[in-house]
Amino acid sequence: MYYGRHFVTTEWDRRLPLHLTSIGYTDQSPIHREHGFQSFHWLHTVEGSGEFTVNGTTCRLQPNQGILLKPHVPHSYVPDPGGRWSTWFMTFDGALANPIAAALDIPTMTPIGWDEDCPLAGVHEHYRERIGHSFDFAGISGSLEVYAFLSWLKQYGRSSGQPSLSKGHERLTPIYLLIEEKYGDPDLGLGRMADTLGVSPQYLNTLFRKSWGISPYQYLVQFRIQKSKELLIAARSRTVKDIAFAVGFQDDSHFVHTFHKLSGMTPVQFRMQYGD
Length: 276
Prior knowledge:
Blueprint: E1 3-6, H1 11-14, E2 19-27, E3 31-33, E4 40-47, E5 50-54, E6 57-61, E7 65-69, E8 75-79, E9 86-93, H2 97-103, E10 112-113, H3 123-128, H4 139-156, H5 165-171, H6 173-182, H7 190-197, H8 201-212, H9 216-234, H10 240-246, H11 252-263, H12 267-274
């Protein structure tokens, strides 16, 4: 049932943005690391529970909860008294491990949880079926595995009671559908989008910024520009003014200005460069 693999790390591996150093599913015993672990270390509970102490703070890791540690951070963890604690772990390093984790904005040194029906809940089973040969996870293959796992953490993980990114996107689905169907309507704006979701414009702004880092109106404008690029290439006989109106701009000069701001070129230049 349990498994574990530790991978050979070459000089070439160390130059990769990410590289996998170990992965496993185990019946957890007490651990105390006064000087931390030498690489990034992820640990989560599959069954049972245990206490994890880092930075002077102790937390209990229940099923579907885990924690990501940076290298060389002192920590310790121990199963609950009289209980069995099954955990899954992944350790990784790489030339860009720290900036990639930071860019994905994955919390470290704090518990991360997820829903029972998301891929993270079954990741220990996923790898049990694939872990037969260590060389399958060497080099670029291992790098891709680490990035895929971090992407799952970003998409499905949640901390401090906040909804996961996937839940945030799911809640905004009516807005995505509205923009897909009505982007050509110049009257489509923040108020109408907020009414569709049944929230205030201010709260809709908050939801969008958490999921995308931009406002819903900025998302709409970028969507319109992307649609205009499709039309510029697919319908070469249509004028720029006609396309501007088709994607929801009321003024073609505003369209040209916005297109240039977002694309670094005018619509005509884009058509000349990509139209063939």
